[in-house]
């Protein structure tokens, strides 16, 4: 039930973005996302198919009967890795604008007035936003290395695709819920603890983001939808964390 509730926040996020007072704050994150996903799609089309053909051709003959299955499975994993990677890069670039969008969505949902942000405010927030994105990367990368090692260990690699799916969902939850958390002064470690206390809820949200990243055209709009949805999740599930954190 919690998993479906988490996914429903993405639907709420999509509905929020059509609000007239929020549309303008969607434009820059959307532009960054379109550019990065176009690059990712170009990489996928140009190189990954060739890599996969070479990999499948290297397989022993006794696996020839399931070649199509292995090709589909590994191509799907490569595609997911490419889209996750470019999504993280897009979030790194668009972090200040995503933070601003999260702020405006929170204001819309709570009715609490927030002082209008100027260009100077956005520029001033860049160092903090980059620092927060670096914190996320420092959390993701060691775990990615562990999963890569598991993926090449005979026996353990059978469960590797499922571990990648779970980790991708968790990673997307952290990525997007963090914008509202950061805006409200919640420390990164405290944010992770809060998400872990409602793990299924956040896996449902992050799993939905991962799923949408794989859908052509829709993935162009995932970033602002996820920011808005994650902010709604924060408002409904985590309001008060900033007071505890301070």
Describe the structure in brief.
By secondary structure, the protein is mostly helical. The protein has nine helices and no strands.
Characterise this structure.
Helix 2 (27-58) packs antiparallel against helix 3 (67-110) and helix 5 packs across helix 7. The protein has one domain (2-245). It is mainly α and 246 residues long. It is globular, with a radius of gyration of 19 Å. It has helices spanning 2-16, 27-58, 67-110, 119-151, 160-183, 188-197, 199-213, 222-237, 241-245. The longest helix has 44 residues, at 67-110.
State the domain count: 1
Helix content: over 70%
User: How large is the radius of gyration?
Assistant: 19 Å
Major β-sheet profile: none
Strand content: under 5%
Element string (H = helix, E = strand) = HHHHHHHHH
Low-confidence regions: none
Shape: globular
Number of helices: 9
Number of strands: 0
Alpha-carbon distance between the termini?
Answer: 32 Å
What's the rounded overall pLDDT mean? 80
Structural class: mainly alpha
């Amino acid at each position: 039930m919690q998993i479906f509730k988490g996914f429903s926040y993405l639907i709420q996020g999509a509905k929020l973005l059509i609000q007239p007072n929020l549309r303008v704050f969607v434009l820059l994150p959307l532009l960054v996302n379109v550019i990065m996903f176009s690059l990712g799609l170009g990489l996928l089309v140009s190189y990954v198919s060739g890599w996969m053909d070479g990999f499948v051709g290297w397989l022993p003959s006794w696996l020839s009967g399931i070649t199509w299955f292995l090709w589909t499975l590994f191509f799907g994993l490569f595609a997911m890795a490419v889209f996750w990677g470019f999504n993280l890069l897009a979030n790194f670039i668009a972090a200040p604008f995503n933070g601003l969008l999260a702020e405006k969505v929170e204001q819309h949902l709570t009715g609490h007035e927030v002082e209008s942000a100027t260009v100077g405010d956005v520029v001033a927030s860049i160092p903090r936003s980059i620092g927060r994105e670096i914190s996320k990367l420092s959390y993701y990368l060691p775990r990615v290395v562990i999963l890569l090692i598991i993926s090449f260990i005979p026996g353990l690699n059978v469960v590797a695709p499922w571990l990648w799916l779970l980790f991708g969902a968790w990673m997307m939850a952290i990525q997007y819920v963090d914008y509202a958390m950061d805006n409200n002064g919640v420390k990164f470690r405290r944010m992770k603890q809060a998400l872990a206390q409602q793990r299924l809820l956040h896996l449902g949200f992050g799993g939905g983001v991962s799923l949408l990243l794989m859908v052509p055209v829709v993935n162009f709009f995932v970033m602002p939808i996820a920011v808005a949805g994650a902010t709604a999740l924060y408002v409904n599930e985590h309001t008060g964390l900033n007071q505890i954190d301070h």
